Amino acid sequence: MTTAPVLIHRHASLGAFRRRADAWLLEREAEHNLMLALAARLEKSSVGFEPPIYLATIERGREILGCAFRTPPFNLLITRLPAEVARPLARDVAGVYEELRGVLGPDPEAAALAEAWSELRGVVVREGRPAMRERIYQLERVIAPERPAPGIARPATDADLGTVASWVAAFSAEAGVAANEERTRELVAGGRILLWDDQGARSMAASSGDTPNGSRVGYVYTPPEWRGRGYASACVAALSRRILDAGRRFCFLYTDLSNPTSNSIYRRIGYEPVCDVVDYRFDPAERGT
Hints:
Blueprint: E1 6-10, H1 14-26, H2 33-44, E2 54-60, E3 63-70, E4 76-78, H3 86-94, E5 102-105, H4 109-121, E6 123-125, E7 132-139, E8 152-155, H5 161-175, H6 181-189, E9 193-197, E10 201-210, E11 214-221, H7 231-245, E12 250-256, H8 260-268, E13 272-287
Parallel strand pairs: 4-5, 11-12
Antiparallel strand pairs: 1-2, 2-3, 3-4, 5-13, 6-13, 7-12, 7-13, 8-9, 9-10, 10-11
Helix pairs in contact: 1-2, 3-4, 5-6
């Protein structure tokens, strides 16, 4: 019996991609939360995105084996994929983009695709290693911090926009990603950014992306002078509780595995690990030989 080949199906519209991929992605909603949330956000508004969008399913026969998705200026996002698809997928992506900033997904799939892209375009992975190893967490029930921080949680308003914008810029710089002022204003206007206020704003967290049953917590930031006082734990716990109280079943977030403090903080308030992903970034200024 001949095994059907693995094929890349590039979709011409977001609707076509979602009709084909959503059910498969929802089988592992936490693992695929970023792709699901980006697709839902793009369906509502193209603010913050730059065409062309890349939407692909990887299939054998009618069985979906994985997905690849890009909403520029962000990195190419991949799910688990068959090992043999790395090079053909890199070639297909190259038919749409001259350059990529990076690839985000599980290893070894992300490593294989980063290597294939490097060979194809003659670029190298920045510093010769993953830019960041991250862990996806999921929460279904909030555990209140043992030592509550002083202060209260409150939504950011237009009056806080200057503070929030500077914090988003600082967060983005620490994470090595580009800040987007338009997106920041959108989050504030939508009541999606929560501040922890203790005689002034001390920490923030945002509900930054929705899936059918959950919401991703992001932009968790406390200025250096206010760290170590429990503000971030209190803010994330309060936001997570609000998300669940609003009817969502889960909260998701990504952590940097090189930061043991944040990983332990999130676990103490109820977040449980789901899987790890790796963010490989390319340096276009440094060409391979």
